[in-house]
């Protein structure tokens, strides 16, 4: 299975309108950490997922089809400062419906900014997933922003903070394609 064949499937604001999938990998993270860029890098495409210079643009759940009924799901980013409490509530509902209420085999990748490191919101997300027994791994993106990035060091530190094994952490740069092959292999293995 190659991610190069991945196609845009649907953008929805109501997750209930989605059909069931066989398996799906879900991308979550703060706005602007590079979720869309990572998806493009993984699929070897420039504009499959729309990227944005302005944080918080993605308000819909964007679904990409790797092969029939096997998906990559790009969730709207969290932690965007200028959103109303009402919008935050909608976001929460959307995430709950997407991650907990749908029955498909799924795994979540929490994307973080390698330079910023994990934020409280990222750790909250991890705790929440743990509570609901949803498997997750961490992806530290923008490693190119760190001078002479030692990916192993980033992996080690991130694993410590999230209290997970180092094989649950990937260090990548969507911009420079660093670490993307290894991350892609993990996704392909899950979707197989
Ligand atoms: N330096 C650097 N910038 C990145 C990387 N990935 C994404 N960006 C930039 O971060 C911004 C947000 O990217 P986007 O993919 O839209 O983030 P999203 O909101 O999480 O989907 C854009 O300006 C990207 O060019 C990376 O690996 N390195
Ligand atoms: Mg995006």
UniProtKB/TrEMBL annotation:
CDD domains, per the entry: YihA_EngB
GO molecular function: GTP binding; metal ion binding
PROSITE patterns documented for this protein: G_ENGB
Names of the cofactor(s): Mg(2+)
InterPro entries: G_ENGB_dom, GTP-bd, GTP-bd_ribosome_bio_YsxC, P-loop_NTPase
Superkingdom, natural source: Bacteria
Swiss-Prot/TrEMBL GO biological process terms: division septum assembly
Classification via SUPFAM superfamilies: P-loop containing nucleoside triphosphate hydrolases
Gene3D superfamilies listed in its UniProt record: P-loop containing nucleotide triphosphate hydrolases
Keywords attached to this entry: Cell cycle, Cell division, GTP-binding, Magnesium, Metal-binding, Nucleotide-binding, Septation
Domain EngB-type G: 21-192
UniProt keyword Magnesium, yes or no: yes
UniProt cross-references to PANTHER family, sorted A to Z: ENGB-TYPE G DOMAIN-CONTAINING PROTEIN (PTHR11649:SF13), MSS1/TRME-RELATED GTP-BINDING PROTEIN (PTHR11649)
Job of this protein: Necessary for normal cell division and for the maintenance of normal septation.
Family: Belongs to the TRAFAC class TrmE-Era-EngA-EngB-Septin-like GTPase superfamily. EngB GTPase family.
UniProt cross-references to HAMAP family, sorted A to Z: GTPase_EngB
Protein name, entry field: Probable GTP-binding protein EngB
Species annotation: Endomicrobium proavitum
Phylogenetic lineage: Bacteria, Pseudomonadati, Elusimicrobiota, Endomicrobiia, Endomicrobiales
């Amino acid at each position: 299975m190659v991610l190069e064949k991945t196609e845009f499937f649907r953008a929805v604001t109501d997750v209930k309108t989605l059909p069931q999938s066989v398996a799906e990998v879900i991308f979550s993270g703060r706005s602007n950490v590079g979720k869309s860029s990572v998806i493009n890098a993984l699929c070897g495409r420039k504009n499959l997922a729309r990227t944005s210079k302005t944080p918080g643009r993605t308000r819909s759940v964007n679904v990409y089809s790797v092969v029939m009924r096997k998906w990559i799901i790009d969730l709207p980013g969290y932690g965007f400062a200028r959103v109303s409490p009402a919008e935050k509530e909608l976001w929460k509902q959307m995430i709950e419906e997407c991650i907990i209420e749908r029955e498909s085999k799924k795994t979540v990748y929490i994307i973080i900014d390698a330079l910023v490191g994990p934020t409280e919101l990222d750790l909250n997300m991890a705790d929440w997933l743990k509570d609901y027994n949803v498997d997750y791994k961490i992806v530290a993106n923008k490693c190119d922003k760190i001078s002479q990035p030692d990916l192993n060091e980033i992996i080690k530190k991130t694993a410590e903070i999230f209290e997970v094994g180092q094989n649950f952490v990937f260090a990548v740069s969507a911009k420079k394609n660093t670490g993307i092959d290894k991350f892609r292999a993990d996704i392909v293995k899950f979707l197989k």
